[in-house]
Here is the input.
Amino acid sequence: MKTDELYRQTVGKKEITFSISSKIEAIDEAVQKATAFASDAGFGDDALFGIDMAVREALANAVKHGNKLDETKNVEITLINLDRGMEITIRDFGKGFDVSEVPDPTNPENLLKASGRGILFMHNFVDKVEWQQHAEGGMIVKMTKNC
Here is the structure.
């Protein structure tokens, strides 16, 4: 993991931005940073578990599907402590995708398909998930967890 981190703190709001290389091994340390940030923000054990799972899945998607395990491409992570929760933004530098084209894993015809489950997990573990293409390339997933 890169050690260059950007910390910003304004009245009532704390923010940290850091990046990891596109290696599976880098995901765990990034997840630990996210859950430590959430713990410092006052989230309890159940919420921390959900944040861990959602961030882990979003990072795995960014590393494997977005950046295609290309270690020359980073994944950027921004954590923001909001008044009533936390915002997690993860950006990869791949081609991106259309989330509406991912098969719904709860549809009976897709039950045995491997794709789509991670997106379902993210939706179940945080309160809001949004995807968008970055203007300069790559995909952004923004997740919000309320207190």
